[in-house]
Design brief:
CATH class of the largest domain: Alpha Beta
Number of strands: 5
Shape: flat
Oligomer: single chain
Order of helices and strands: HHEEHEEEHHH
Radius of gyration: 20 Å
Structural class: mainly alpha
Distance between the termini: 42 Å
CATH architecture of the largest domain: 2-Layer Sandwich
Strand content: 5-15%
Strand order of the largest sheet: 3-5-4
CATH topology of the largest domain: Zincin-like
Largest sheet: 3 strands, mixed
Length: 184
């Protein structure tokens, strides 16, 4: 393709490019400015709770980074308990048995399923509302029947959640929110 055609194409897309660059800069600025404080809130299973809520039990006078580390530990513990329970609930309904269920620190994937039947879920998933958590759990369990994203795979998911597309939208909304928060 001649350079002039490339230049003309790029020039025709300039407003779109500028708008997306600006949006990315804004997200990055919010992410850089992200800090936890005792006056803030934490998102747990789709609901916001004040950080000083007794259920969290954070010690007083932690720095923002210490508070973030304590929150991540709390999130991991809740994720381990809740997500494992949801896997245990849905696996027999779907007629599958995962080899293991692990919680990890993945930033860009809510969950994954290995060829060996190991399920992995990001601790960040515990921030999602219950219906979105259940969708991700069912999505990964469906891979134990269909190790792809074919129409047969989506039929397995739709068998459990005919509204899976709506649940996908909710998890994507959380993903957008978390793109402006620096959880490390």
């Amino acid at each position: 393709m001649p350079k002039r055609d490339i230049d003309a194409f790029v020039a025709s897309k300039e407003p779109w490019i500028r708008a997306h660059l600006e949006a990315a800069r804004e997200r990055n600025a919010r992410k850089t400015a992200f800090a936890l404080g005792y006056d803030g809130e934490l998102l747990l299973r789709g609901k916001s709770y004040p950080i000083v809520d007794a259920r969290f039990g954070f010690p007083p006078k932690l720095t923002s980074e210490q508070l973030k580390a304590a929150a991540i530990m709390m999130y991991k513990a809740h994720a381990r308990e809740h997500i494992s329970a949801r896997v245990a609930h849905f696996a027999p309904i779907m007629g599958v048995t995962p080899a293991t269920v692990k919680i990890n620190g993945a930033k860009t994937r809510w969950g994954s399923c290995s060829a060996l039947g190991n399920l992995n879920f990001s601790w960040r998933l515990i921030m999602a509302e219950d219906s979105a958590i259940d969708y991700v759990v069912v999505h990964e369990l469906a891979h134990l029947r269909q190790m792809n994203h074919s129409p047969r795979f989506w039929a397995v998911v739709a068998d459990i959640f005919p509204d899976y597309r709506e649940r996908q939208k909710r998890i994507k909304a959380l993903q957008l929110r978390l793109s402006t928060e620096d959880w490390g």
